[in-house]
Write a structure and sequence with these properties.
The protein is mainly alpha-helical. It is built from 18 helices and 2 strands. The protein has a two-stranded antiparallel ribbon.
Length: about 400
């Protein structure tokens, strides 16, 4: 049965949906990730301390989490296409504010606005995937959609860094705005209304729907796992460029090459991880990916001055593990909610992920300090915290996987 499902072909419209959601995720991830390589530039030009920069990163996450909770009660009451477009237009507006920001305070407000709208889009996308694709195919779908993470490294980050070095740190945000407008037009023209979930909708008011979804025991286990899942990436990502430049002694001009080469290798891991998740089992792939990530995080966070080629190898292996974790975990999460709860569940889950990630980024800003020579201090301690959260998450995802298996058997 599993082998048949993995060989099943997608229809032309399903291919379009996968492509447009992948490109949409690309713009969202790039908007968030571009702050990391810009970190060294921003901290210098705006005279930011690590705690302030950590707050700029986490501001997006906290506002995204709050808006996701507010939107959760309404998420299953509208055509998902209309809901997607509403929040995507808001995301474009917020990114435009980032592009014209001229101070720390303005940038902080701009990131909050961007987060209010951008944080809900991922949950709507996952609800669309759950509506339009069978569980046996979702690993493959997630594999392609999560390619956006690697594509943002291959295309977005190097181009963004080039623009930032040539035209200033505002220019990458203008690039995202222009590209996002094209994506929005494609959604308006080609995406069909998605309303199947409305046929099984109940009569609960939005706040009751939110509370029922929040308090359901099966969903609570998933939310708890999400809290731990968010910790790793959000803690390491904000100070990645500063760590590479000041601790690993990578030239800032070599950063685009580091992201480019890492991305070229890791982009293949998305579809491969998705296919393996459908064929071998989503938890097995998550477990292996987690172990690889734990090992590489311990190595990475304890590095000193390191040749570029070795940093590339470490990054490739670390992102291979991260990709396997992301795709298998996302696929598992889509199997948790019932159809009438998908929008609310995904919104709440996204909110928890964003809030937890924001807290992790802020905590990273407290753990990490800047030495007199510009080096990032306490990075090994940060690595230990990340590893501890990943090990606990392995157990949480095991429980969640057992829960899904029992529901499938019934």
């Amino acid at each position: 049965m599993k082998s048949n499902s993995t060989n099943e072909k997608f229809s032309p419209y399903q291919i379009f949906i996968i492509a447009i959601l992948t490109i949409l995720q690309f713009t969202l991830i790039l908007d968030f990730m571009v702050l990391s390589p810009l970190g060294a530039i921003l901290m210098k030009e705006l005279s930011l301390q690590p705690k302030q920069f950590g707050l700029v990163v986490s501001a997006y996450a906290f506002s995204a989490g709050a808006s996701g909770l507010l939107a959760a009660g309404f998420a299953d009451r509208f055509d998902r296409k209309k809901l997607l477009l509403f929040f995507y237009v808001g995301f474009i507006f917020g990114t435009t504010l980032c592009a014209i920001a001229d101070s720390y305070e303005f940038l902080l407000i701009a990131r909050i606005v961007t987060g209010i709208f951008g944080g809900v889009i991922g949950s709507i996308s996952f609800a669309i995937i759950s509506d339009l694709f069978k569980l046996e195919l979702r690993g493959r779908v997630m594999g392609f959609v999560q390619m956006a993470f690697s594509a943002s490294q291959i295309l977005g980050l190097p181009i963004g860094l080039y623009l930032a070095n040539a035209f200033g740190w505002h220019s990458p945000f203008w690039m995202i705005v222009g590209f996002s407008i094209i994506v929005g037009i494609a959604i308006v023209v080609y995406m069909q209304p998605i309303t199947e979930h409305l046929k099984v909708q109940n009569d609960r008011n939005p706040f009751e729907h939110l509370w029922k979804t929040l308090s359901k025991s099966d969903y609570l286990r998933a939310f708890l796992a999400t809290i731990l899942l968010a910790t790793g990436g959000f803690m390491l990502m904000p100070f990645g460029s500063a760590f590479s430049i000041n601790n690993l002694k990578i030239d800032i001009k070599d950063l685009p090459m580091l992201y480019l080469v890492t991305g070229i290798f890791t982009i293949t891991f998305g579809p491969l991880s998705g296919k393996l998740s459908d064929k071998l089992g989503k938890y097995k792939v998550f477990f292996v990916g987690s172990i690889i990530t734990v090992i590489m995080v311990l190595i990475y966070t304890n590095l000193g001055p390191t040749p570029l080629w070795l940093v590339v190898i470490v990054n490739v292996l670390m992102f291979a593990g991260i990709t396997a974790r992301m795709i298998s975990a996302s696929s598992l999460m889509t199997a948790v909610p019932q159809m009438q709860d998908r929008g609310a569940f995904m919104s709440i889950n996204s909110s928890i992920q964003q809030i937890s990630g924001g807290a992790a980024a802020a905590l990273a800003g407290v753990i990490v300090s800047e030495g007199s020579d510009g080096t990032m201090q306490n990075y090994p301690l940060l690595g230990m915290v990340v590893v501890a959260s990943m090990l606990i998450t392995i157990g949480m995802m095991y429980i969640l996987n057992r829960q899904i298996q029992k529901k499938t058997i019934k």
